[in-house]
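To illustrate the input format used throughout this study, we show a single complete record. The first block contains the structure-token representation of the backbone; no residue identities are included at this stage. The design step must infer an amino acid for every position from geometry alone.
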């Protein structure tokens, strides 16, 4: 079999752990499989590079930022390839550019457009295990790009798709996808299987165990993905197509996202074209809008609230600051101490009462709901950030997601 094995930041966090990873890869190769390894930067490395950049520049040039951030992954792949060679497993480290990961030019959030993978095929044919730097590619103008936070997952899935690998195994510091973040819900339960659609919602609503775009890519290209622990041997979680059994439970998981902010524009003239103007400008600036609420209008004007990633707030201010409606600037206020809590499950299509259960649970905890949004398989509520953990735990209990009392669960690390 051809297997892509991706190791996250904690899994390659120091030399001992890199040795453990090398041991695992060597074991898979010894079993007769061909392996392509993808690795992240050491845990905390990307954050500390980002912090250094921000100490030198309030808004670091994205091109330079990408060159800087891509260095973390180069360190780990070179070390890992050395560790493999030392064990007698011929291995070669590669940057994104070297294996032909071509992206667009959107620095810090580039999209993969093509993977030639030529050098990977050549290496594999020669019995060499390639170790690929995650999170990075090359723009049409030959500049280094990065694929957004958590982007090594995307590298792994995209490489698996390009090589038509039999499996893409994502090794991390938890032994699978849980019903909620095991760091805050102690009785969270590992899911044996989760559908691509659920995983997509879980990831985009805050469960960072898999990067959202990697799930989308896997879904589109039918890449079989498994989430496994780097530290233990267990069955992990299989991300798979939906089957009838999976609809039997209404809610599969509860997530939270503290990285959002709520923007309110007050007293906007209420006539056709205004929303199109505002959201058109935000869209052109590449800002992802999530929930939108428009109030009932009073005396010809209305309030519009929406949520955006907190990291985009400066750009939201910049873009909205330039907009004029009826020759007047917009009156924009921002609330960044909010969190979005969500319940996700394909079973919601066939079960009723999930929304009311969610609202009642939050009400019982006296948590006020500021915004609500729903799709076929998820319900999200924006609440005060202070109540995030309380809300997640209460919802997890209310939907009966926990393990039986006393059964241990949680991160393996
Ligand atoms: P890596 O560095 O291996 O890519 P990440 O830190 O990106 O790992 O993702 C793993 C983390 O995701 C876990 O440590 C866990 O705290 C968090 N997490 C959040 N929600 C979930 C969930 N539903 N199931 C499992 N892990 C989750
Ligand atoms: N090192 C990058 C990050 O921290 C990419 C990754 O780990 O997947 O976001
Ligand atoms: Mg990750």
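Output of the design step:
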């Amino acid at each position: 079999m051809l297997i892509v094995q991706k190791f996250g930041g904690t899994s390659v966090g120091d030399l001992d752990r890199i040795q453990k990873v090398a041991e695992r890869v060597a074991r898979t190769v010894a079993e007769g499989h061909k392996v392509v390894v993808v690795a992240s930067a050491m845990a905390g490395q990307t954050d500390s590079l980002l912090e250094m950049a921000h100490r030198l520049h309030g808004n670091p040039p994205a091109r330079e930022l990408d060159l800087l951030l891509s260095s973390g992954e180069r360190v780990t792949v070179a070390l890992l390839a050395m560790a493999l060679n030392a064990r007698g497993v011929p291995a070669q480290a590669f940057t994104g550019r070297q294996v032909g990961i071509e992206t667009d030019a959107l620095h810090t959030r580039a999209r993969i457009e093509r993977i030639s993978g030529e050098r990977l095929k050549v290496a594999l044919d020669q019995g060499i295990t390639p170790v690929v730097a995650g999170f990075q590619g090359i723009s049409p103008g030959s500049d280094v790009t990065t694929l957004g936070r958590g982007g090594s997952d995307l590298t792994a899935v995209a490489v698996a798709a390009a090589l038509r690998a039999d499996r893409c195994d994502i090794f991390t510091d938890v032994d699978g996808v849980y019903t909620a973040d095991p760091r805050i819900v102690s009785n969270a339960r590992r899911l044996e299987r989760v559908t691509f659609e659920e995983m997509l919602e879980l990831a985009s609503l805050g469960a960072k165990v898999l990067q959202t775009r990697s799930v989308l890519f896997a879904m589109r290209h039918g890449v079989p993905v498994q989430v496994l622990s780097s530290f233990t041997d267990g069955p992990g979680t299989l991300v798979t197509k939906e089957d009838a059994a999976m609809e039997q439970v209404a809610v599969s998981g509860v997530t939270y996202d503290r990285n959002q902010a709520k923007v309110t524009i007050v007293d906007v003239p209420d006539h056709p074209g205004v929303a199109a103007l505002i959201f058109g400008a935000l869209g052109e600036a590449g800002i992802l809008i999530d929930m939108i609420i428009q109030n009932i209008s009073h005396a010809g004007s209305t309030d519009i609230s929406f949520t955006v990633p907190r990291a985009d707030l400066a750009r939201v201010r910049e873009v909205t600051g330039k907009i004029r409606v009826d020759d007047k600037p917009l009156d924009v206020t921002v609330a960044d101490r909010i969190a979005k809590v969500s319940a996700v499950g394909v079973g919601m299509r066939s079960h009723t009462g999930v929304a009311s259960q969610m609202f009642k649970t939050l009400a019982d905890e006296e948590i006020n709901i500021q915004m609500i949004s729903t799709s076929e398989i998820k319900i999200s509520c924006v609440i005060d950030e202070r109540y995030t953990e309380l809300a997640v735990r209460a919802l997890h209990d209310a939907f009966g997601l926990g393990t039986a009392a006393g059964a241990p669960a949680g991160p393996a690390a």
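Structural context for interpreting the output: Residues 8-9, 40-41, 46, 72, 134-135, 149-153 surround aspartic acid (ligand 2) (CB under 6 Å). DSSP finds eleven helices and 22 strands in the chain.
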